[in-house]
Amino acid sequence: MSSSVDAFLGTLDSALRTIWGRPRASTPSPAQALPSSEAPLSAAERKEAGALMRVNHVGEVCAQALYCAQAATTGNPSLKQTLLRAAQEETDHLSWTRDRLDRLGARPSLLNPLWYSGAFALGMIAGRLGDKWSLGFVQETEKQVEAHLDGHLSRLPVGDIASRAVVARMKADEAAHAAWASAAGGLPLPAPAKALMHVAARVMTTVAHHI
Fold first, then answer.
1. Cα-trace Rg, the chain
2. Is the sign of the CA dihedral 100, 92, 112, 132 positive or negative?
3. Residues 99/9/205/139 CA torsion (nearest 10 deg)
4. For a FRET experiment, which of 62, 86, 98, 162 has its CA 20 to 30 Å from that of 54?
């Protein structure tokens, strides 16, 4: 009973810190390695960059929920630790994207509690299906996120080199997560499941771009 209560409190703490806290990155943001002076962005460019980084921040909120739920449902201690390490890397991304939002004068999505809850539920379902399907879900999620970030690299203003550096590093990390999930034995998801994930992601990114 004590371990169950501890696990619940740990999950709740993670959710509260993700949605309303200011997570600290364990790795410096790629933007910090760039020259301190940036080319000024027009109002329209700043608005678009802020909207795109808000979407990316939402993606990291969802990643925290997914990994937390999947770590909580696996009975494999080694996989649990691997998922938690991946969650820490996603915490870096969460911090980096929030920093870019602040610097662009943009705000996080007002619907972050909803995004977190939905992603947590999906992570629980994936975890309950078994480790191989859970890993397959990680693999497909990260592949879709990687493609999404690649699209953002083509849409971010050329002058916003800081946001572009952050997104490029995130893209590389997501590809690495997909690779380890595949190497660990993740099963390819059925085509209908992939299509549903794509549709859900499209709804989320469209709404988060504005709200």
1. 17
2. positive
3. 100
4. 86
